Amino acid sequence: MACALFSACAVAPPPSVAGELEVEVPTSWSSASARTEEDAAALSTEWWREFGDERLDALISLGLTNNLDLRASIARFEAAAAAHAIAGAPLMPAVDASFNADRTKRLFLGFPFGGATGAPSANFTQYGLSLGVRWELDVWGRLRSADAAALADQQAAVHDLRGAQLSLTAQICRAWFTAIEARQQLELAEATAAAFEQTLSDVRDRFRRGLRPALEVHQAANNLSAAHANIAQRADLLQRAGRQLDTLVGRYPAGDFTVTEALPAVIPEVPAGLPSQLLQRRPDLRAAERRVAAAGCRVDAAEAALYPKIALTASGGTQSLDLEGLTDDDLRVWGIGTNLLQPLFQGGALRAEVKRQQAARAEALANYGATVLRAFNEVEDILAAENHLKQQLSALGEAASHAARARDLARERWAMGLADFLTVADGQRQAFQTESTRLTIARQRVDNRIDLLLALGGGFANESDSEVR
To answer: 354-388, pLDDT tens digit by residue?
Structure first.
């Protein structure tokens, strides 16, 4: 019995069901920008440090400690761990101790003696102390299957927690770089407004001297007012980004802090690995696979419920008319037995339960496959966007340089009377818009890298030393 007890308690985790996927996984990514190095499979849990921003590192550390959504994920994991402990408890014998005390009055009816008050009677007090043991023999594996299902659920909760941590770090990174871009956009808007203000001063001076018409004064004033409106908009976006960061790290959303001056100029290159590695890296895929395994174990448990349940019972204790007698060996009582319960007719409920669990497993498997396809789609899209954003950023850098030169030449020609004011105003607006777009694309490229790390399930421990500029 002892050997059977210990063997029953040794429940192994359900095996992987990834081989049941009806999804053909290619040997390489279709995007030309993807690198497929076998040595890139090691997972880096602190991938954000590759950006080299100590303030960002501090914010993420604070968020992983204080974020309330993450605390909720931790609580769900703890609940899953407790559920696993509950599911495994029936594999062990159940032991109960009881103590009872009964006060009874008995009537002696039919006896020839008695009094005027009625039949004779007597009061008795009886005490009992007992220990009972009950253990179900898990012959068909019903209890082990239920325990294995709860273990798979706990493993899924672990991956859910890891996914929540990964998602939180990505959100903080995106909010941080959005705040940096908002600050750069605000500084650009302020510099542009200062340039428009100087232009308006020059136009007014020429108007007073009768050299330029009033139309140009109004056009210059319009540009300056629009620049001030843009400053207010950029300041609002910066404060919104700050409040979002405060919320993510679990602080009151005051939005009052200082961000880094510029976006990272260098982004470390991240090898994408092989597509098949995605199944072992992404927390959401691993959690979905564990839920399929848990559903399979519940099918096994439902099928085992069709067979007889066999249980061993034993009890022992003492009964006495006084408390001191509970320790008397002569008053000991005991019992031992076994019982077998075979369901005969329950209206088809047990077989319907088997079908329900089979359908639940089929649903979990289909959801797993759909999640895998969406994951592959995310990675392919992000890898394809990498080259496009790189090309955009390069082209916009050249465009911004040409726009700034055209703005300066237009102003010089206007000062010499060789160009009208519309050329100057258009040059200033084009220079501002091009530089503003360049900053946005630079931030989007950083976001795309964050999205890639999120889609791949994290960074790589042995990343290449090469860099993308």
So the answer is: 999 999 999 999 999 999 999 999 988 988 898 89
Distances (CA, A) of 445 to 174, 382, 453: 11, 10, 13
Q: What torsion, rounded to 10 degrees, do the Cα atoms 182, 185, 186, 187 define?
A: 130
Q: Domain of 416?
A: 14-90+151-306+351-468
- Domain holding 224: CATH number? 1.20.1600.10
Q: Is residue 417 part of a domain?
A: yes
Tell me the three-class secondary structure of the chain, residue by residue.
CHHHHHHHHCCCCCCCCHHHCCCCCCCCCCCCCCCCCHHHCCEECCHHHHHCCHHHHHHHHHHHHHCHHHHHHHHHHHHHHHHHHHHHHHHCCEEEEEEEEEEEEEECCCCCCCECCECCEEEEEEEEEEEEEEEEECCCCHHHHHHHHHHHHHHHHHHHHHHHHHHHHHHHHHHHHHHHHHHHHHHHHHHHHHHHHHHHHHHHHHHHCCCCCHHHHHHHHHHHHHHHHHHHHHHHHHHHHHHHHHHHCCCCCCCCCCCCCCCCCCEECCCCCCHHHHHHHCHHHHHHHHHHHHHHHHHHHHHHCCCCEEEEEEEEEEEECCHHHHHCHHHEEEEEEEEEECCCCCCCHHHHHHHHHHHHHHHHHHHHHHHHHHHHHHHHHHHHHHHHHHHHHHHHHHHHHHHHHHHHHHHHHHHCCCCCHHHHHHHHHHHHHHHHHHHHHHHHHHHHHHHHHHHCCCEECCCCCCEEC
Q: Structurally, how many domains does the chain consist of?
A: 1
Report the DSSP pairing between strands 43-44 and 309-320: unpaired
Query: Is residue 419 a part of any domain in this protein?
Result: yes
The answer to whether 31 and 383 are in contact (CB under 8 A) is yes
pTM of the predicted model, to two decimals? 0.82
| 114 occurs within a structural domain | no
- 359 lies in a domain? yes
The band of 189, judged by pLDDT with boundaries at 50, 70 and 90, is very high
